[in-house]
Amino acid sequence: MRLHEYQAKQLLNAAGICSPAGFVTEHSNVVASRAKCMGPRLAVKAQVHAGNRGRLGAVRIVRSPGEAETAASALIGSAIGGRPGNAGSRPVRRVLVEEAPDVLSEKYIAFVLDRGTGDPLLLVSAAAGADVESARPAVFPLSAAEKAGGLTDGSVRAATLRMEFQPALAEEAGRMIRRLASFFFENECLLLEINPLAVTADSRLVALDAKIEFDDNALFRHPELASLRDATEEGTAAVGPGGVPIVLLGGDVGILANGAGLSMAVMDGLRIRGGAAANFLDIGGGASVEDVRAAVEWLLRNDRIRVLLVHIFGGIVRCDRIAEGMLLAFHSTAVRKPMVVRFEGTNSGQGLILLGRSGLRPVFAGSLGEAVETAVGIAASEGGRSG
User: Fold this and answer.
1) Best CA proximity match to 94, nearest among 20, 2, 27, 1
2) Which position among 69, 106, 146, 193 bears the catalytic label?
3) Which of 69, 108, 324, 373 is catalytic?
4) pLDDT, tens digit, for every residue of 90-140?
5) How do residues 324-377 score in pLDDT, each as one tens digit?
6) What is the pTM of this model?
7) Is 134 in a helix, a strand, or coil?
8) What is the CATH number of the domain that holds 353?
9) What DSSP state is assigned to residue 242?
10) Active site annotation includes 6
11) How many structural domains are present in the chain?
12) Are residues 308 and 372 in the same domain?
């Protein structure tokens, strides 16, 4: 799971890593008023999951709040990497507006997992930017002891030397490297990259850009991080009537689940049994009745979907709330589709009773395996009828 820049900076700020003062917005008409106490130079940056945003025109440096508002207006609603709707393009829904400090030099630092071995690596360079690979960053493999107990003094000293910090900043740089390492390991990241890390004219170390990717398989241990997922940026996506993000896939079983891990387990179960998901839809832990209604209504109106598979493990979210939203969706449209439901956890009994008394005749399943197997069978039979 990848974060937007503004999300990454918010998390890093909480961990003691400095970034420019700024704000994120989806509305350009508020930019000038909110930016009037900032400056004098500002950066307006499209928040999309795309590399080389500067070269794509998604980062604009301006010199007044008015210019910032004009830049934000041009970016919001545009598409990065192509025309709106084209494959590979990224629609811009929000921008980050922040101060652009005076920079003396730019450095590079990243923590990554070696894709071949799974071992953590520290990468650093005295140069930064989109072509940092050409600078051949120094690579420092990290030991199991460093993963468990923090970086050694030797690793930190070697990294700051390769980044060519002046003595007056070397100690502060060392503290930053240790904080980044702690964040990387504690949150089970796949990637944590600061590019560039600026040395400012007033001798501060400031993260001008930040990229963070988390291990999807570990997100169940970090629900506060999983809630930051922007599904509209992952693959081809749509936005349901209530603003609920829905990632479109190629199958015919419409999925409504809560939690990224559970949603992926349902998708894997369908694949194992010869079926295919039509979408990825993680309703999240804070879903309201209206959120559920909007999501289910969208699934009902999707012509490709032959059966709905609803799999909810009630924790923060209540199963009866999910049921209420489902019923509202079915009452708002004349479209009827078969549905398979498995509820477990908070208020699951009440949710099942609501659906059982609805007249919609859902198929109730007692396990994940039973739910996906039933859904695959219904999809196959519905496909035979339409054929």
Assistant:
1) 27
2) 193
3) 108
4) 788 899 999 999 999 999 999 998 877 888 999 999 999 877 877 789 999
5) 999 998 988 888 999 999 999 999 999 999 999 998 999 999 999 999 999 999
6) 0.63
7) helix
8) 3.40.50.261
9) T
10) no
11) 3
12) yes
